[in-house]
Amino acid sequence: MSRQVSAARRTTFYLGTVLLVAGGLVFASLFFTVAVVAMGGPDTERVIPSFVVRMILAAALLLIGGALRAVGARGLAGSGVILDPQRARRDLEPYARMAGGMVKDALDEAEIKTAEAGPERVVMIRCPSCNRLNEEDSKFCQECGRKL
Would you list the domain boundaries of the chain? Predict the structure, then answer.
């Protein structure tokens, strides 16, 4: 499995980002238009057709940009465009590795030990009288009560 995202997927992701930003700007311009009309600006009959066109353009740019970003980040199968579990696993591998790395970093920062560190060693003391294993800080056997 590849640990790197391909150049085509990166390009798709960044193109989607550009389209999202452009859609957001067009969408924001709609509010500017409403404010200008509300303050007695240009004739409403001239503004409404361009307002509707820009609203449709903003929606299209936002939808297409979001879809391209998802495909760029997760690949075709990983984003659900192609229904192939094996390919989805390959497509999501760099993305999942990144997310897993972030979780590991958070656990390390919180000083939480993971299974990767292995089980913690426990020292036990065997009672010479009854052979029971006792914790290392025990003064007396937990079975027979003899001093250790």
Answer: 7-117, 118-148
| Three-class SS state of 126 | strand
- Interval 94-145: pLDDT, tens: 777 777 777 778 888 888 876 665 566 788 889 998 999 998 888 999 989 9
Which letter does DSSP use for residue 3 in this model? S
Residues 6 or more apart whose Cβ sits within 8 Å of residue 65: 16, 17, 18, 19, 20, 21, 22, 23
The span from the CA of 10 to the CA of 67, in Å, is 14
**What average pLDDT does range 60-71 have in this prediction?**
95
Element (H, E) at 70: helix 44-78
Instruction: Quote the CA–CA distance of 47 and 40 in Å, as a whole number.
Output: 12
Q: Express each pLDDT in 1-39 by its tens digit.
A: 556 778 898 999 999 999 999 999 999 998 887 777 777
CA distance 70 to 77: 11
Strands in 33-138 per DSSP E: 124-126, 133-135
Name the 3-class secondary structure at 83.
Answer: coil
